[in-house]
Amino acid sequence: MASPTILVKVPEALLRRASLHTSGSARELVVFLLEKRAQELEQAQRRQAYEAYYASRTPEEQAEEVELLDEFAAADAEISDKVMP
Fold first, then answer.
1. Is residue 27 a part of any domain in this protein?
2. Which domain holds residue 67?
3. Per-residue pLDDT tens digits for 33-71
4. Quick one: three-class SS letters along the chain?
């Protein structure tokens, strides 16, 4: 099975500005930019999923979460008091 290939044309001015003198360096730049964009897309999708989840919660689920957060805050405060007298 062949790997997918992406052909990207990078303007020469960009390559000069990035001080890239070899095609290997240009390839590394393009791979970096594509990976960065893919990460941004994943983060946007994750953010949308969280927003949808939190928007669909019932009041009971929200109250349960607040209660758990209060318990964690109390435990954190207790530990902080022990660590930093």
1. yes
2. 12-83
3. 888 888 999 999 999 999 999 899 999 999 999 999 999
4. CCCCCCCCCCCHHHHHHCCCCCHHHHHHHHHHHHHHHHHHHHHHHHHHHHHHHHHCCCHHHHHHHHHHHHHHHHHHHHHHHHHCC
